[in-house]
Amino acid sequence: MVNAEIGVIGGSGLYSFLEDVTEVRVDTPYGRPSDSLFLGEVGGRRVAFLPRHGRGHHLPPHRINYRANMWALRSVGVRQVLGPCAVGGLRPEYGPGTLLVPDQLVDRTKARTQTYYDGEVRADGAEPNVLHLGFADPYCPAGRRAALAAARAKSWDPVDGGTLVVVEGPRFSTRAESRWHAAMGWSVVGMTGHPEAVLARELGLCYTTTTLVTDLDAGAEAGEGVSHGEVLKVFAANVDRLRSVLFDVVAALPAEADRDCPCSHALDGLETGIELP
Ligand SMILES: [Zn+2]
User: How far is the CA of 149 from the centre of ligand 1 (A)?
Assistant: First the structure.
């Protein structure tokens, strides 16, 4: 049976060594997700892995079909999503290797569809209502607690809270943009954490992100700024412990019957106009 309860959006390094992984191709009313879903078991939980950039990393952040990705996860039963991502640190003390679990988000993306409820008739004839959901606290409190505890248990002292600013990319920030982000008090900068977070909320899914700092952003360091090679190097050096922490988070997430966080009630009493998978 094709089902999962927890979704993990991240690279193939997270699931490639699991035994008994089932590849499932899923289509959605919003088109195809980034890749197949890869279903396997971690810590006694059924997990669906989705390579955010596709296998071989052919999709840049602004071309990812975020709506299809979140819909596909929900359609195989997923109700809680972990969306780890690589970020730049906006403060000198958040150097490479820092694990930060944000509690806030600033959206600086420019051209990404970030709602299911736009009143536009879909290709399949379904007609979503126009909705405005609360998003004051973008992340699942239960997921954040599990992530922080799992990191601490692995002696990877995490930064508890902070603001992730998500930029459009694919380029990195200018020095002026980076200094501005830092001056606003924001903590880390990335390209993929949004609209994943809000689309999860719109589907009543829990969403938690754990950010791994791979470099200091242009305004926070004195040198030439970020290079892609540098980012990959730090990511590779940390992927094993990131995976081990994520798997502990998966095991520690609440069972579906015990899920009672605000995200799980995001759609209570609302008429979406469309049937959720
Ligand atoms: Zn939640």
Answer: 16
